[in-house]
Every structure is written in structure tokens, then in C-alpha cells.
Amino acid sequence: MKIRIIAGQFGGRLIDAPNTSRTHPMGERIRNALFNTIGGEIQGAEVLDAFAGSGAVGLEALSRGAKSVTMLEKDRVAAKVIEDNCKLLGVTESAHLIKAPVSKWLDTTDDTRQYDIIFADPPYHNQQLSTVSRLFSLLKPNGLMILSYTGIGGVPIQDEIVVVDNRSYGNAHLTYFRRVVS
Questions:
Q1: Which of 65, 175, 67, 46 is nearest to 112 (CA)?
Q2: How far is CA 142 from CA 79, 152, 167, in A?
Q3: CA–CA dist 156, 120 (Å, integer)
Q4: Cβ neighbours for 178, distance < 8 A, ≥ 6 positions apart
């Protein structure tokens, strides 16, 4: 399956998506709406793409001017697709792939980096909201996290994190969180 990078430096380029039911690439319409919503915040941002799948969201961020993207993906097939997509676009210096489950990486990483923007798109059949809530600790002050989910159940709540927007696109929902500066 092919996915199109929508805009920016790689706009119109096609990348691969894993040909498996274990990932659900974010649709082009939703990706476009997402990036239109966050606008200029992507420029120069350090981005974390958790549950990266094909890497389309992280690569779209790079295409639109992000400084760097770290992509987390546990599935072997999907991780290989991300590696190939990074090579295809020539972004191996600014795109970093970590082949691990998000929860395990959070448990074992000694990386203290924080991110301007975090994309969290867990599998729809296993939304892992407790893991998603742990990602809040990686947000810089005033940082933005976008959660893509089915809309079933609640969203994680945490001190110093506020919901700033909710959008629905059929059965896909995006909730935007911001770390408030205290």
C-alpha cells in the first residue's frame, strides 16, 4: 500500500505502508486536517511519533519543517517499512527509529529529551491509555500532544495538561493536549 506525503518538502511523494492488519495508517484527510490545525508549530519542532506504523505522520512533520522526529514502532514489518521510507526520502539524519513497544521504551530509556510535539496513534484494538498518559512527561512546557483514537472511552487526564481541542472524522478522533506553563 502507498501513502502520499501531503505538503512541504516531500509533498506529493509516495511512501510505503505496512501491508498488515496490525497497523492503521492515518488517512490523508485526517493527516491534512491535523497538520492544518497545528499550523506553524511544526516549524523547527522536535517531534515524537509514538506507535509510528508507516511513519507517515512523522515524515509529514519533517516534510513540513520539523527539526527532527523520533519514531517508536514495535512491529518488525512496520519498522522495516519506516527504515525504507526514511532512506527513500533521505531523512536518516533527522529521523530516528526506535524498535520497541512504547511502554517498554518509557520503562528503559535513559534519554531525558523532551519534545515540542508528540503524536500518539495507538492501535485501535488496544488504545493503551495508561501508556499514552505516560507520554505527557516527555512534553516540553507549552508542548502539544495529539492523540488519535476511536472515541470510545475517555482520554487521559493529568495535572498541568489541558485539552485544547477535539476533532472527529468518522470513527477517528483527535484530541489535542497542551502542557501548561506553571
A1: 46
A2: 30, 27, 20
A3: 12
A4: 142, 143, 144, 145, 161, 162, 164
> Which triple of cell numbers denotes residue 82?
519506516
- What pLDDT is recorded for position 182? 64
- What are the tens digits of pLDDT across the range 96-145? 999 999 999 999 988 788 999 999 988 765 667 778 889 999 999 999 99
Instruction: State residue 152's pLDDT score.
Output: 63
- From residue 10, alpha-carbon distances to 19, 46, 81, 86 in Å are 22, 18, 17, 11
Residue 152 buriedness (CB in 10 A; 0-12 / 13-18 / 19+) = exposed
DSSP string covering the chain: -EEE--SSTTTT-EEE--SSTT--PPPHHHHHHHHHHHGGGGTT-EEEEES-TTSHHHHHHHHTT-SEEEEE---HHHHHHHHHHHHHHT-TTTEEEE-S-HHHHHHH------EEEEEE---TT---HHHHHHGGGGEEEEEEEEEEE-S-S-----TTEEEEEEEEETTEEEEEEEEPP-
Within a 13 Å sphere around the CA of 152, how many CA atoms are in the beta-carbon half?
Answer: 8
Low-confidence residues of the chain, pLDDT below 70? 21-22, 124-127, 151-154, 156, 182
